[in-house]
From TrEMBL:
This is EAL domain-containing protein. Residues 23-272 form the EAL domain. It comes from Sphingomonas oligophenolica.
Amino acid sequence: AKQNGRGIVRVFDDSMDESIRFRRRIEGGLSQSIKKGELSLAYQPIVAREGFEVVGFEALLRWNTDEFGPVLPDMFIPIAEESNLIHELGDWVLGESLQVLKDWPGQYVSVNFSPRQFRRHNFVGHILEFVQKHGVEPSRVQIEITETAIFDDADRAAETLYRLRQMGFRIALDDFGTGYSSLYNIRKFALDCLKIDRSFIDGMGRERESAAIVHSIVHLGRALGLGVIAEGVESEAQVQALNLAGASHFQGFHFSLPIGPEQAREMAEIRYLV
Ligand code: C2E
Ligand code: CA
Ligand code: CA
Ligand code: CA
């Protein structure tokens, strides 16, 4: 039994070592990624229900490495988030997206900020410095944050969001419905829109629960005077169901995959999809 126990402990230790080593390699790779030019952004259109007008694009980070090939953000963002690397990556994303935005006739860019970025000291001043440096109107920048970023320290977050919104930034609450927002507290936050998490859109045609959740998020959003963006829209049937539910905006493969900056500029100029 003792040997057995030791065996188990050793297996456990080895796998721990392995995952720590893997994490270190990712971290090492990420810390070099900017100067090696391995990062890029893909832009996915956000369309209004009326006429499928392209009103903005979400910037999505891509990392292509010699060592591991393309690595998905769901894999490396959490690792960056656990170290200070997230700040470097985030600054790169913001600078790059503000640069690309200038080529679009009027659309906004929607940028993801992790909880750690949002909670950094002087987040407001930091963002403001970027838009001033690039000469971009804050109203053309949408800040996407998740529930996790704002519900931990709700009063401080509410103050930060209020100041950002005063300056003209748009605020979107991302992955809405997956976190632990209290519907009561949501009033405290200065928001422009809710983004319904893709998992609910995906389940809409199959489970009554998902459809019910989508409907209640849309109702809540409208009652609070917010826009409601449905993300992960993949089919015409979903578009119709979301139209009935009353969603104001759509985003997903049905309209467009995330695309490169040149394609995004063309789409921004054409302005209407389908
Ligand atoms: P997210 O913010 O929820 O982004 C939406 C994700 O859904 C993107 O995955 C997008 O490519 C994908 N998607 C869009 N439409 C569809 C669809 O119709 N069907 C399906 N199946 N998927 C769709 P992606 O690009 O892999 O990004 C994953 C997550 O990584 C993002 O989720 C976001 O949380 C994070 N992320 C991406 N870029 C950044 C960034 O610059 N900064 C931070 N902090 N996080 C980022
Ligand atoms: Ca997002
Ligand atoms: Ca999302
Ligand atoms: Ca997500």
